[in-house]
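Hi both,

Apologies for the delay on this - the queue was longer than expected. I finally got the zinc ion-bound model through. Below you'll find the protein sequence and the ligand SMILES exactly as submitted, and right after that the structure tokens for the full complex including the ligand.
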Amino acid sequence: MNKYKVISFYKYIEIQNPEGLANEQLNWCLKNGILGKVYLAKEGISGSVFGNDEAISKYKNHLRSFKIFEDIWFKETPTNQIAFKKMHVRVKDEIVNSGLKETKLENTAPKLTPEQLLRFYETGKDFVIVDARNWYESKIGKFKNAITPQITHFREWPKVVDSLEEYKNKTIVTYCTGGIRCEKASAYMLEQGFKDVYQVDGGIINYIQQFPDTYWEGGMFVFDDRKVIEPNTKEELKYIANCHFCNKPTSYFINCHNLDCDKIIVCCHECKAENEYCCSDECRLSSNKRKVFYE
Ligand SMILES: [Zn+2]
Ligand SMILES: [Zn+2]
């Protein structure tokens, strides 16, 4: 039995007073055993929060009690791990930093359900699937045949779209972790003249819950202390990345503990310990190392 749940959610909706709501959220969560991150902006809410079953179900009811959030979709993942140790609530300009200020949400692409995406694959449909996440996310997991842009921040999306010019008249499917980035990513593509764009509804989280061991390959990067979710049980679909040191298949990452380096590398647990969480001997001998050892 899993003891805890992580829920992630977002909704684009006009919020009059994000600061007020931020205070409310922080106080409520601290009182009710909820940890995680919630972002608020005038354009909406996004979050990923963690707690035991009871706390999570209370939180869902609480958030849905606000008229503007009564239909919000919570994507749930049961877990035994501690996903967050703190509660952060922040007011931002955008609920996901995109830099796509001119992009209109009403232009967002139609949603493709996990079943529909599965059918695209199974019927051999001619389509181009594009990962809207960062390189270190797609490095350890992606949809079969996906284009995986080597970007380090979603703000670089326009550059990715430029590079896809040759597919302008093809069927395009975009995906991200929970769907939030694709709302704007797909809108931007349509605005740039792409003809037939879809986004995976509810993102990877939604797909792997329904169809593990199919067309998702490897692990899914998450922005909390779990770091990675491994949805597949078929040996050949478990890992797509290899340890930087020993080449063993793994989905784990470290940030090099030399703060002057901070490079992200794929690294198995054994090599992580052996190399003191560093990417090289040089970094291991640095005097400017992180004091805390993360799992
Ligand atoms: Zn290794
Ligand atoms: Zn290093």
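Main takeaway for now: Residues 243, 245-246, 248, 268, 270-271 surround zinc ion (ligand 1) (CB under 6 Å).

I'll put the files on the shared drive as well.

H.
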